[in-house]
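To: structure desk
From: M.T.
Subject: fold request, one chain
Message: Could you run this one when you get a chance? Sequence is below, nothing fancy, just the single chain.
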Amino acid sequence: MMETPMVNPIVGAVPGGGWAAEFLLPDGTVQQWALLAWLVRADGTMQPVNLDGQGWAEDPRDAGNFVRLVPPEDRG
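Reply: Done. Structure tokens follow.
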């Protein structure tokens, strides 16, 4: 879900605010990883960002095992 920067550039960033991304693991369990930040795009949309296993920032929705974004009040 990454966009071409020239079409819709990043104009700001805010902390993850307690949100998490939930992923389905190979054994069938789910795991939540805290969001690092939200990127603010020029059109006003927000893009979640977390770190992958190698420390690279990425949009968790691009992962094949992504389940959902979890708001702070639903974190277990």
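Reply (cont.): Residues 10-71 form one domain. Let me know if you need anything else for the meeting.
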